[in-house]
Amino acid sequence: MRNHARFAVGSLATAALAFAPLTAMAAPAGSETTGGSDVVTLDLYNLTDIHGHIEAVPGKAEGTYKEAGLAAASCYFKQAKKANPNSQLTLLGDNIGASPFTSGSDNDNPTIAALNEMEVFASTIGNHEFDKGVPALKDRFAGKNGFTQIKFDYLGANVEGLKELGSYKIWTSPSGVKVAFIGAIEDDVATKLAPGTVDMLKFNKPVPIINSLATKLKAEKKADVVIAMFDNDVERSYPLMGKDVDGIMGGDTHKPYFDFNMVKANDGHTITATASGSFTDNMSNLQIKFDKATGKVVESKAIKIDATTLVGCGEDPAVKAIVDKAVAKAKEAKAKVVTEGTGNFYRGIQTTTKDGKVTVGENRGTESTLGSLIGDAMKGAFKDLDGKPIDIGIINAGGIRADLEPKDGKVTVGDIFAFMPFSNEVGYVKMTGAQFTTLLEQQWKTLGKDSSRPMLKLGLSSNVKYTYDPTKPMGERITSVLIDNMPIDPAKVYSVGSVTFLLAGGDSFDVLKDPSIAKTLTTVSNPLALDREWMESYLKANPKVQPRTVTQSTGITFEPTVKGTDVEATVALRGLSFTHEGEFMPKEVTIKLGDASAKVAVNNTLEDANAANENAVITADGVGFTEPVMLQTKAVCTAPAGGTVHLPLTVTAPDGTEIVSAAAGLGMDAMCPAAPKADDKNKGGQNDQSGTDDQQKKDDQPNKDDQSGTKDQKSQHGNNAGDKPNTNANGKPNTGSMPMTGVDAASASLAMLVLLGLGGAAISVRKARK
């Protein structure tokens, strides 16, 4: 590439994350060019995560817009630059990839052509620029093999092995202020791509490189102001910036940030941080006021220019011509109707409220109806090469890029491409039930190591249900898994269908890289090849498909205590709801343990104060939670003396629909009193092991509370002293908060000795680890 510098810096220790949102500084769109004879106002406009969204998208209210499109964004920037020549435009990566039909169906050439006309100064490299592989990206830089040439600089200071990337680029404004833009990307790129895609490249730790380079550029008088263009979540990144970084622009997570104005980084220096959002929903202006006399930034703030304001400028004719040509080319193929009568399916969302204004953002950590639909397609659209049905369908949340809202119930080719734009191949792997349970465990991510999000929720075919305990350590959270309403068999081999990106271990689902699974990866390409084609086939076979009416994954924290025959258990729930109005979002649920039950209110808030860190709730454990509730019941033995009886834990919706059924095996086992010894029978009841005084009085009454139980009780529980201990989803004895431990003869004898000292009936439980 032209006109950029390349600089390599060794890795340094990174600082710890610490951040706190501040109140936004209100400011109109536009720029100030004065503020004192030596103060210069720099208007640094930026866009992030465009993803080929080149067209304007109207909002629900008349005259409003959800997305401005590139022609309007270009108009606004060029007009702003005329008003203040000390203005510049940069991009933060993911300009292409996962794109709508208009751009994506033409290899994103329309997006690159439009950006070339917008006077873009430079762009950070994003992970989606690598979607088609490194050779294809090189072809874009060179403008060959059918790709439109990129005519602006791409930056990636921490990337080794791609000579087309620069580390930084310096702009000397008309006022004479030198601004250095340093581009970098988080080092988790490989986890977001099909395994092997970027093996020829090295992604170093970005923060030490940004900070060292900023210090060097200022020390060498090459820059007066340094801006980090860091493709990562701004809220997590800005506290880590060093003293010589004056501002930071971010992206990747699609969350807009305009509230971090003149905030303090970890080292105490002042910085302003911003991210525009995604899809031209906003443009951001990082406005810097620089005093040339002192050589210092005296003020900075992030100004939000929303899509409606951008559209109000009009359209840049040169960019509009490119967009119009692309729209016309794609129109006929895009409008083809696939099916009619299909319902609305949505991705997960989260919200933030600031000064009474609600901002809606993406939520990949909660269950979604669209993820469930795709999971069903990955199970039901094709068979394995032996002609056998696929057992389980899965999809990664990041592979779903739009909602499905059919106009008049009609789904078009363009609609399918919108939510499945990657053109992935599909296939299946073979894995054991224990390995599938590990796959579910790996939905929770270690920030900075595996992901920039605390969870990446899998969409699952409707025959899968599971429970989890979010309070347990990572790797130990799955507490039950049902396949076709039967407990998963840890040793059984299941076929799992999905896109090959995920099946090869993408999104850091590392268990899929295990050689025993990887060797079974099989691509299905007959008669169709790509994910969107199989999705189209599934919808044609199921034209009236509607969103499911209950969630599949439920968080349950269960803490039982026992006092004689009295049982108490504290229960709290998570992940009960979807996130859109009209979807399953219960206001209350019924929790039942044995004969005890309680109706509890469900909090369906979509706000998460810790959405971007390890303490996340709705972006890690799901939407829809309850406060802890205490259930109390008395153990009633219906099993033979010395045996056990199971108290199932269930959760139901207001209409009686089971959210968690008894089939999950959650709950606890009550140990029945052992039968009295022959010698004790002749001692007038002394040292009787039949339980408490109250229980003994009941036992003395003929034909009442007989341990044989009712027929219904026998049918429901059916446990006896010879039952084997229950196992968890991994095939190991339960040790967590939801045990189903049986009792063998030796254990029963030992328990009987303990009861001699304690008296009364006993309940066999194990406490949840804190």
From TrEMBL:
Comp. bias regions, Polar residues: 725-738
Signal sequence annotation: 1-26
EC number: 3.1.3.5
Domain Calcineurin-like phosphoesterase, first and last residues per copy: 47-256
InterPro entries to which the protein is assigned, alphabetical: 5'-Nucleotdase_C, 5'-Nucleotdase_C_sf, 5_nucleotidase/apyrase, Calcineurin-like_PHP, Metallo-depent_PP-like
Comp. bias regions, Basic and acidic residues: 694-715
Record region (Disordered): 673-742
Top EC class, one word: hydrolase
Single annotated GO MF: 5'-nucleotidase activity
Record has Hydrolase as a keyword: yes
One matching Pfam family: Metallophos
Segments forming domain 5'-Nucleotidase C-terminal: 355-514
Domain of life: Bacteria
Family to which the UniProt record says this protein belongs: Belongs to the 5'-nucleotidase family.
Protein name according to UniProt: 5'-nucleotidase
Organism the protein comes from: Arcanobacterium wilhelmae
